Amino acid sequence: MKNRIKSLLSAAVAMVIFGTMMQAQPSSQRIVRDFEHNAGLENVHLHDKTVLDVNAAKRGLAIVSQKLSRGVIVFQENVQLSNEAPFVMCGITLKLDNANAENVRVFVRARQESASNTEVSMPESAWQLLPFDTHTEDETEGITPEEAFGALVGHLTLRTHVATLPATTRSVEVKIELQRSATRIAPVIRHYQCLLHNPGKTSAEELARMREALTVFSRTEKNSVTLQNSRIPRPVFLTRTQWGCPWGQTSGPNTLTPTVPTHLIVHHSFSPGNDITDWAAAVRGVWNFHVNSNGWSDIGYNWLIDPQGVIYQGRAWIDSMDNAQGAHFCGFNRATMGVCMLGDFNSITPTEAAQRSLVRLLAYRASVNALDPRAISFHANSNRTLNNISGHRDGCATDCPGNMQYPLLATYRNRVFAYMNPPVIAPPTATVESAQSATVSAFVRPNGSATQVFVEWGSALSSLMPPQNRRLVRQFTAQDTATTVTATLTGLQPNSPFIYRFVAQNSDTSAQSVFGILTTPASTGSALQNSADRIMLSVSPNPSQGEMQFRFTVAATSHVRILIRDVRGIVVGQPLQQTLASGEYNITFREDNLASGIYYCYLELVNGQQTQFATKMISIFR
After folding, report:
1. Do 342 and 459 fall within a single domain?
2. What is the domain extent for residue 228?
3. Are 443 and 480 members of one domain?
4. N or C, fewer C-beta in 10 Å, the chain?
5. Which pTM was predicted?
6. What letters, b where the CB count within 10 A reaches 16 and e where it falls short, cover 308-342?
7. Which helix (H) or strand (E) holds 366?
8. CB atoms within 10 A of CB 121
9. What is the helix (H) or strand (E) element at residue 368, kind and residue range?
10. What pLDDT digit, counting tens, does each position of 506-552 carry?
11. Listed residues 530, 550, 572: the one ending a domain
12. pLDDT by residue (tens digit) across 288-310?
């Protein structure tokens, strides 16, 4: 409760700080109507007092006659926010008696400004039903015995999800429907609040800085991964400061509680919906409603993801650890992490970019806490047995994470497992069958996910990477075990060196074998390489600490090229490319930027119609 009070008291300060960070300053407008004291109907343009009116005996706005089962009232709230809004956000809070979420409904409708600077009347179809928000801080936090008893007898506070309205909105109509219960008990509205918010338009300069920040932050990503003991890297994300959180990296005046997640909860924001482009402003808007309307310690989610796949840091961290307990799972927040997919996914699915970021983020947290993404376990705080990756609706009655996204949770679990358990490929081997064909093979372990295996090959002397040839050779199911995969390469150039490798891909990650080397003979039917086309190449020292000597002999004037490739086949050095006269040569090669590991040296001599070559595996140890 203290955290909530501190949050509300700091709202004005937060708005001042926030305004210095964005090109267009944000602003908020709070409209309060108190019906408990026989007031609150001032400036109400549309209502029928024969159906719904303030009732002094019931201390609130109620259905007038016992004969009526339903009452409706419409408020028109004028918007008085600063200009340069990317959109207007609207949320409604009601304090009621004799009520539950089933016998109260709230709708909003925007009245916009036309080109002639007049309000445009909106059709009935423009009413937007706002579901109630079941996100809360911990269920028992700050609740007195009187409040707990009040909830049992129907005294409760209902907060809607936020509606995102056009930037040209001049006024908002709020329609509230009250319905008698099956026992004819009618709900009573004691208190009404409409919070309107302009989160401030993100400037082009700020957007450019955010894109740059994503690039820069990726360089420090591994440090945090090491601290968190994860073998899966934490995805690149925008920090709170970078997306413009008024409190920066801190939780303002509030103290957050750490938790160790055992269950990862997926959400959608419902609103902002799917038709906006300023997603950083959307995140700021969500923060504002969670803190300044709901009175929470901080934004409820630990992470948020926009349709472009950009990940936003949500709730502040505790020191350097990203394990603060959120406010997102029906009041049962202990031992959870909440990720919000920005958008309304009741009628569409999230973009592949957003899904890919979600998979990587869930895999990171599952790795940190040693969670099996496909397992089911008991969640003590909710007293439920849940999938380790669950949706918001698994904790209480809500549409979240959206009717189209909820069925994807099974796919998310499999994709997270696949990302955490990439396929494994042993070093490949080859048998040269003729001057134009060879059989290559490798031992592949799919590791419990559906996996496709490809073979890639190309000239060892080509700079193209990956190799220009690629073919599917095997499809594993999730139930298949490890086995040797074999492929026949045909149409090879006689008397030529080739590199080849196997690539295994599941839904979200892949593995490549090291490159193998094979050399086709000079003529069809010959199983051995013609020694006239080979030249001697010696490398010393081998292994080396980075500097080595390549020794070879040129019999006649030739164009000579030396390439150095890593085990992925990528050219990492070219010590020599020039025409040399006949003679013995000793070429010094040193590359301080090469890491310790295995590399391949390719020597090619071209003299008229004859091509000679040599290959050598080299080792560097620093």
Report:
1. no
2. 204-420
3. yes
4. C
5. 0.80
6. ebbbbbbbbbbeeebbbbbbbbbbbbbbbbbbbbb
7. helix 352-368
8. 9
9. helix 352-368
10. 999 999 998 888 888 876 444 333 344 567 889 999 888 878 999 99
11. 530
12. 999 999 999 999 999 999 999 99
